[in-house]
Amino acid sequence: MAVTPVPGRPAPRQAAQADPVGAPRGRLRPGSVARGAAWTLAAAVPLAFLAVFFAWPVAALVGRGFWLDGALDLGGFAEVFAETRTWRIIGITLAQAAAGTVLSVLLGVPGAYVLYRCTFRGRTFARGLVTVPFVLPTVVVGVAFRAVLAPGGPLGFLGLDQTFAAIVMALVFFNYSVVVRTVGGLWERLDPRAEQAARALGASPARAFRTVTLPALAPAIASAASIVFLFCAAAFGIVLVLGPTGYGTVETEIYVQTTQFLDLRAAAVLSVVQLVVVSGALLAANRTRARREQALALMPEASAGRPLRARRDAASLAVTVAVVLGLLALPIGTLVARSLRASDGAWTLDNYRNLATTGGRNALSVTVWEAAAISLRTAAVAAVVAVTVGVLVALVVSRRPRARSGRRALALLDSVFMLPLGVSAVTVGFGFLITLDRPLGLDVDLRTSGLLVPLAQAVVAVPLVVRVILPVLRAIDPRLREAAGTLGAPPGRVLATVDLPVMLRPLGLAIGFAFATSLGEFGATSFLARPESATLPVVIYRLIGKPGPENYGMALAASVVLALVTATVMMLAERLRGQGAGEL
């Protein structure tokens, strides 16, 4: 018998309960099967993409190192770890990652306060400017710091060229915005009344920050530190360009063992070591991110902030200005200036005119402008693939099932799609070459097609798309979806009316990150791009390795072009971001 609701009384219990996507529980509705199939398909597509273009190539390369004469042989671990060189490389990698992480956090927290807690004219522009270094190609970052630290550069007197300190400085340059955006995104949502109450009770500004604000920011700081550690440990282009002779990390050692010595056994062992380190960083990031999101649920969406005052905010302002001008702007400014100088010191545009040539002694197979066009086409295809896969992942992971097993499964899915950020790009690239000749038995050789490089770049860009979109989708009150479903809206209608309007706000930023990341990807592309289809980062690295001032001047000019294109993309994406976009 139907139950008629009585005005003023709660609705019957069974009518109020709904599943995460809006279907009432208690009996199987006709649309529940279709709904379940739709979400299964939404999860299956990105999982299939990850399996074919990431897990399979990586497993194939690692397997070749451990599968000898038709049998599993793990003796490579003993051989590789018996070498003193291995432990030195692991030590350098961990030291480099730890130093880069600590400095990024120490310098990034004051920047997060100035750019997200305070208000001033030009703040949006400053936020976009700080973001640019993170998406600059690592090769460009390496060239810029060489221009600054080399003899004759602005900081050449420090003698830091080709040193460990130079690499750490470049890593901080690259990862500063990760800390600023992650910590700042939480800081602007903190309720200021708690800190104000502590001040009213007599606490000094420093004590109020230490006892009230810092504990609230701790989850975001830990999450940012975990991600920065991952990026620093897996750095490739920066170490390759700035590292001194004989200097190596796990990432570059995999490259050396694979390309120079053809020792897949040692490369496989080092890939496993790197995967363990990455998994640990992702586990820490996942736990701290969960704490962060729980805290955000209790706070307003964003606080208005307070006007920036030179006297009150002197320390934070001084650190931020010093970092922005000295660490961020100086390398880029020096790069531009050096690109406009001839070898004799005269100002000239010859380096830019030479971009229409193949360099001194035909150092290249294509001109720099042709490589730029190839890069743009490749990045456009990669961005389409990455955004499509990333949006599907974000939609699935943003669901909130009631069952603990379901929540754990989604958390695992989220972590799995972060793995490409930390696994060796060299491993992925070489794995592509040995697996994608006839993938899944299809009569097509992807290695000779134009899709190989875009697919490899998309694998790297997908995690960034997920990280931008996912926080916004998770901020949606699940009761909105439940109400729409209870009123009879099918799953597609729920997505279109509840999720899509909110997701559109960070979608522009996600597209920008995907395009810029693909534009500057170097590790896997250096393996896969043929000489006649080389992308701009590969061309720049080849010019650096060729003798002659003409080739080096072209490398500087090409780096400026690539940096300018990347910065333009990110500035446009930042303007399209809108309020409420996700943070890295």
TrEMBL record:
Give the ABC transmembrane type-1 domain ranges.
90-283, 372-573
**Annotated region Disordered: where?**
1-26
Query: What are the entry keywords?
Result: Cell inner membrane, Cell membrane, Membrane, Transmembrane, Transmembrane helix, Transport
Q: Give the bilayer topology.
A: Multi-pass membrane protein
The cross-references to InterPro entries, in alphabetical order and at most eight, read: MetI-like, MetI-like_sf
Q: Which residues cross the membrane?
A: 37-67, 87-116, 128-149, 164-183, 217-244, 264-285, 314-337, 374-397, 409-434, 454-473, 507-529, 552-573
Q: Where, per UniProt, does this protein localize?
A: Cell inner membrane; Cell membrane
| Signal sequence range | none
Can the keyword Transmembrane helix be found in this entry's annotation?
yes
Q: Which family does it belong to?
A: Belongs to the binding-protein-dependent transport system permease family.
List, alphabetically, the PANTHER family matched: INNER MEMBRANE ABC TRANSPORTER PERMEASE PROTEIN YDCV
Q: What is this protein called?
A: ABC transporter permease
